[in-house]
UniProtKB/TrEMBL annotation:
<keyword id="KW-0552">Olfaction</keyword>
<dbReference type="GO" id="GO:0004930">
    <property type="term" value="F:G protein-coupled receptor activity"/>
</dbReference>
<dbReference type="InterPro" id="IPR000276">
    <property type="entry name" value="GPCR_Rhodpsn"/>
</dbReference>
<dbReference type="GO" id="GO:0004984">
    <property type="term" value="F:olfactory receptor activity"/>
</dbReference>
<feature type="transmembrane region" description="Helical">
    <location>
        <begin position="132"/>
        <end position="154"/>
    </location>
</feature>
<keyword id="KW-0675">Receptor</keyword>
<comment type="similarity">
    <text>Belongs to the G-protein coupled receptor 1 family.</text>
</comment>
<keyword id="KW-1133">Transmembrane helix</keyword>
<keyword id="KW-0472">Membrane</keyword>
<dbReference type="Pfam" id="PF13853">
    <property type="entry name" value="7tm_4"/>
</dbReference>
<feature type="transmembrane region" description="Helical">
    <location>
        <begin position="25"/>
        <end position="50"/>
    </location>
</feature>
<dbReference type="InterPro" id="IPR047132">
    <property type="entry name" value="Olfact_rcpt_6C-like"/>
</dbReference>
<feature type="transmembrane region" description="Helical">
    <location>
        <begin position="101"/>
        <end position="120"/>
    </location>
</feature>
<feature type="transmembrane region" description="Helical">
    <location>
        <begin position="272"/>
        <end position="292"/>
    </location>
</feature>
<feature type="transmembrane region" description="Helical">
    <location>
        <begin position="59"/>
        <end position="81"/>
    </location>
</feature>
<keyword id="KW-0716">Sensory transduction</keyword>
<keyword id="KW-0297">G-protein coupled receptor</keyword>
Length: 314
């Protein structure tokens, strides 16, 4: 039967169900969240690059998640917005679908690796403050960031390749707003149980592998903070890690919810909600997580705005 099967060369994405009025409301909501996400993360990147007071490893690492958040959300959200604005299904070629899935997974994996790196950075800052500038020098910071990016893009080559080696002739309709891997496996002609199991093991390896240094680092961090005699000292030490800890909790929670499940072909509604959490909600929250309680960043941003106002007046 497979010999009579012609594999599809394009996919039709159904996007979101509902009336045109509901789709307009969703468009306005997601467009607002996407705009704030891009603007908020851009402000972080520009402020960190321009202000000399923020030239430290902590803020160097902070700039990279902001870049990743912009890129991750931009792999799918603009396409999703187009589908909400225009009636009917969207068409995506097989090549474009593969590129979208690869970029989304690679950038997400790089972000997970960077979360582990940032946890180690916070461990050194709290537990070895006198040696912090020696250990986390500019060369070390640059190398670990490069390795995080390279690891993300190399580790997802085989999973995406294996997915698109399947024959998609059962259907070319994906009940999603982007090229979701679960939906691709669902419309495959072949038995995908083995592929799903391998992808599940790889997701476990990547997520848990990057989570281990985070858990170990925060175990030492909490132990060190509890040994500080003064309450103000404990509060100050914890404040340096609070933003990153919140970022880690939301990031890993989203990924575990979406990817660490033995069966990738979950119900379309489940995958849509989980994907929105990763692609829209988390990138929207992160600029606020990193800046609202960071007095040094707020001061640097305020100084930058004052300089801009003075330049405009002149």
């Amino acid at each position: 039967m497979l010999g009579n099967c012609s594999s599809t060369t394009e996919f039709f994405l159904l996007g979101f169900p509902g009336s045109q009025e509901v789709r307009r409301i969703l468009f306005a909501t997601f467009f607002f969240l996407y705009t704030v996400t891009v603007m908020g993360n851009t402000v972080i990147i520009v402020t960190v690059c321009v202000d000399k007071c923020l030239q430290s490893p902590m803020y160097f690492f902070l700039g990279h998640p902001s870049v990743l958040e912009i890129l991750i959300t931009s792999t799918a959200v603009p396409f999703m917005l187009g589908g909400l604005l225009l009636p009917g299904t969207q068409i995506l070629s097989l090549t474009a679908c593969a590129a979208q899935l690869y970029l989304y997974l690679s950038l997400g994996t790089s972000e997970l690796a960077l979360m582990g790196v940032m946890a180690v950075d916070r461990y050194v800052a709290v537990c070895n403050p006198l040696r912090y500038n020696i250990i986390m020098n500019s060369s070390t910071c640059s190398w670990v960031v490069i390795v995080s990016w390279v690891f993300g893009f190399l580790s997802e080559i085989w999973p995406v390749y294996a997915t698109f080696q399947l024959t998609f002739c059962k259907s070319n309709v994906l009940d999603h707003f982007y090229c979701d891997r679960g939906q691709l496996l669902k419309v495959s002609y072949e038995n995908t149980l083995f592929t799903e199991f391998i992808l599940f093991l790889m997701a476990i390896f990547i997520i848990i592998g990057s989570l281990i240094p985070t858990i170990v680092s925060y175990t030492y961090i909490i132990s060190t903070i509890l040994k500080i005699p003064s309450a103000s000292g404990r509060r100050k030490s914890f404040s340096t890690c609070a933003s990153h800890f919140t970022y880690v909790a939301i990031g890993y929670g989203s990924c575990l919810f979406l990817y660490v499940k033995p069966k990738q072909t979950q119900a379309a509604e489940y995958n849509r909600v989980a994907s929105l959490l990763v692609l829209v909600v988390t990138p929207f929250l992160n600029p606020f997580i990193f800046t609202l309680r960071n007095d040094k960043f707020i001061q640097a941003f305020g100084d930058g705005m004052k300089r801009c106002c003075q330049l405009l007046k002149n």
